[in-house]
Design a protein that fits this description.
- Strand 2 and strand 3 form a beta hairpin.
- The chain is mainly α.
- A three-stranded antiparallel β-sheet has the order 1-2-3.
- The radius of gyration is 23 Å and the shape is elongated.
- The protein is built from twelve helices and three strands; from the N terminus they run αααααααβββααααα.
- It folds into two domains: 98 residues, Orthogonal Bundle (DNA polymerase, domain 1), CATH 1.10.150; 160 residues, Intergrase catalytic core (hpI Integrase, Chain A), CATH 1.10.443.
């Protein structure tokens, strides 16, 4: 299978019409989303080839078998739901393009994802303060990275792709222009602590990336993950923390502080408020749950 972006094969052995369906679907996406959807379809096409299933003539029952196959591989419910969601959406666009008459995935039973029960790392405010202190000691690039992820809620791809020229002054604010998921632009005001960290990372330069590695190259997703792991270890944080964990920390901290869900949805740049609620890991925090009403005292 070939993608419209690179032309490289996903899984060999398919007819050109199937390649065209996959390529036209993937052409709608870019960046990390394109990478994830490519991996999802590669896994599905590999299954079809291994079990001799016709991709464009697959039945609902066969897709049910694919979901059971994913379950047998030990994938989490959220992973299965995402992988099958990619497959279903690709069939939806095949229907729109007139390649197949109906979406065979429309009535497939999908795993129920209990978002509240998932273990998703969120730092306590004291842990985040320790992380900031360790990042400041580690160097200006690590400090700016932690500030941009944990105090602006940026995705790691957004933070790594920012350039010095993306910062501008307007109406009394320093704004950072980012290109978000789905190529959606956004201008984000920089709070003073973040602005100071960014200026230290820029170090008088006028062009080039804001975040750089120790060798001077643009920091990428892998480099950001390594830097965060190193800084977390220096801060004494024993739990594994990812760049997306800092975005989740940003959202949860805001909701605990009393920011409304609609405002936090805007800050996170989510199209659906339900997505923002999935980031709210404080719902299971007993410290913020309403008190249980006491039993009434009846007169003697």
């Amino acid at each position: 299978m070939t993608t419209s972006t690179t032309g490289s094969e996903l899984v060999p052995g398919y007819l050109d019409v199937t390649r065209l369906v996959v390529a036209s679907f993937l052409a709608r996406y870019r960046g990390p989303t394109l990478t994830a959807y490519t991996q999802d379809l590669k896994a599905y096409l590999g299954w079809c080839l291994a079990y001799d299933r016709e991709v464009l003539a697959v039945t609902r029952g066969e897709l049910e078998m694919y979901v059971r196959y994913l379950e047998s591989r030990g994938y989490a419910a959220a992973t299965i739901a995402r992988r099958f969601g990619t497959v279903s959406t690709s069939y939806k666009y095949a229907v729109i393009d007139g390649v197949i008459p109906a979406n065979p995935a429309a009535a497939v039973t999908r795993p129920k994802v209990a978002w509240e029960g998932q273990k998703r790392t969120v730092l306590h405010p004291l842990e985040f303060a320790a992380l900031l202190a360790a990042a400041r000691t580690s160097g200006p690039n690590d400090h700016a990275l932690v500030c941009m992820l944990g105090m602006l809620g940026l995705r790691v791809s957004e933070a790594c792709s920012t350039d010095i020229t993306d910062i501008r002054y307007e109406a009394g604010y320093e704004l950072l222009h980012v290109l978000g998921k789905g190529a959606k632009p956004a201008d984000i005001p920089l709070p003073i602590p973040v602005l100071r960290a960014v200026r230290e990372a820029v170090d008088g330069r006028t062009t080039g990336p804001i975040l750089r590695t120790r060798t001077g190259r643009r920091m990428d997703r892998a480099g950001a993950s390594r830097a965060l792991t190193r800084v977390a270890h220096a801060a004494g944080i024993t739990r594994q923390i990812s760049p997306h964990g800092l975005r989740r920390t940003f959202c949860t901290t805001g909701l605990v502080a009393g920011i409304g869900i609609r405002d936090m949805q805007y800050a996170m740049r989510h199209a659906d408020p339900r997505t923002t609620m999935r980031y709210d890991t404080a719902r299971a925090n007993l410290d913020v749950m309403p008190p249980t009403p006491s039993r009434p005292t009846w007169p003697a």
